[in-house]
Amino acid sequence: DLPDPLTLALEITFFMVVEDFFFYWTHRLLHWRMIYPYIHKMHHTHGTTVGIAAEYAHPVEFIFGNMLPTSAGPAILGANVHLLTVFAWYVIRFGETLDGHCGYEFSWSPFRLIPFSGSAEYHDFHHSANVGNYSSFFSIWDSVFGTNKVFYEHLRERDQ
């Protein structure tokens, strides 16, 4: 049977939380100066983000920084999750990463409805300044570990 809308929403929310946690840590690790020049710098050749840059990554980053966090939630639930839910999740995840790398702050983006969500501006700053803002869906882990302080200082200075 197909999952009911509540189950679909709850499982995708679970996937988002799991992905965001693992993505934060793998992304932060990829910025470690000992490995950054060899792996993640390839993705950051796009200082100004464009949609296709979202998927432009070194193969090691693609597997450990993108695929592993994205597939962690479905792997945890395993056979208890419907394949349709997994496909819906992959579409949502791909859409979010395109939105975050598009270079525009669309006020009508459905991803802005997510509580504590980052935004295109949030991730654009990450690419332009190459510091902090490591999260994907939410800004929670950046706030908890203080890796978005430079971004919020930048906004305060800009808005003065």
TrEMBL record:
GO biological process entries: lipid biosynthetic process
Domain of life: Eukaryota
Annotated Gene Ontology cellular component terms: membrane
Keywords of the record: Membrane, Transmembrane, Transmembrane helix
Domain Fatty acid hydroxylase: 13-147
GO molecular function, one term: oxidoreductase activity
Keyword NADP: no
InterPro entries registered for this protein in UniProt: Fatty_acid_hydroxylase, Sterol_Desaturase_Related
Localization terms from the record: Membrane
Protein's UniProt keywords contain tRNA-binding: no
PANTHER family: STEROL DESATURASE
Protein name as catalogued: Fatty acid hydroxylase domain-containing protein
